[in-house]
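Intended use. Records like the one below are meant for learning the mapping from a protein sequence to its folded structure. Do not use them to infer anything beyond what is encoded.
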Amino acid sequence: MKTFYRIFLIAAFAVFVAGCGKDDAAPIDEPLGENPKLRAAVEAMVAEAPAVWNTLNGIEVWQEGYAPSGAWLNGSTPDSRHQVLSVTKTFTGMAVGIAVREGKLRLDDRIYELFKEEADAALASSLNKNLSESRVAHLKAVTVRDLLTMTCGHTTDPTVKYSIQYALSLLPYVSSSGIDVTGALNSLDLTLPLLFFAHPFNDEPGTNFTYNSLGSHMLAEIILKKTGENLCDYLNKRLFEPLGLEKPVWDEVQGTTAGGWGLHLNTDEMIRFGRLLLKGGEWDGVRLIPADFVKNAVAVQTLPRTVEFGYQAIGYGFQTWILPEGFMASGLLGQYIIVLPKKQAVIALTSDVLSFSQLLGSLVGTTQSEALLELTWKHLIPAL
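Structure written out for the chain above:
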């Protein structure tokens, strides 16, 4: 009888297992395939690029539901990290949002109160000519928000002014392959906060946009002062590691992470950051950046003067250019993260750093990377 009972149980179990057919099995995720139309678009852009923008070295496009499509040129590979220049600014801006969430600072904090010693030294410096009561008042009124929106009151870019003023002392950092911006700045006896405050504040803060790399660097100085951590270290624990990135190379100026340039990334790392912003600051169900901060960062906060508009740009948010279709982080001469919410897509582009003569041409307006964006809108955007 016991033997029969055992046989019965085995048979019942077999019937039960047999009843759990394929329909009840756990689904197996198949790897996503590329969008054939986008793959063809990338190849078409690669074919045309040498005649239009011959320094392009990386393209990667991600769209929800597909595997990324990409191409790497001029000796670059998917793992190659490149200096992304002013794309860095958008990372700096998001660090401010994280610091606000942690209660380290507020957007309406006045930077004069944070850097009183440097600001007073700048006001007393011979660099600060034609000082007036209104300029002093404007300087003392600048807030963190004004730095984020590039409306601190400078009516000209201090970076260009000081590049000309200290041109002779910067010559050793110029070579046929480019200019070592970080090395040149590290060679100066004057600190970057002092140079920032010494540039005239002609406008009332919050009123007019002027592109301002020193202003972006001041955000990094604020992060260090208010958190006790350099910007790169601060973001490594709060942004890079959660995104699955190894700590990137990021230039330092006078001991502080460069806030307006100097970050080195590959295209996949740029894509991940763009996807984070596309999802409003959330990654794998974990909030890394406050949702309201991201929402404001990627919306028009100010309207740049006409001459400062980039290709397709309609305004500026928090260290981010705003487009009709979305927004982008933009670096000089061909570094971009383009985020297109309606397409649920992110585009990353990197280019080689040009020679000094080409870089100089860009500063005086004779060389623009708009040709690369024109290629992007010609080939990639229609394929999404």
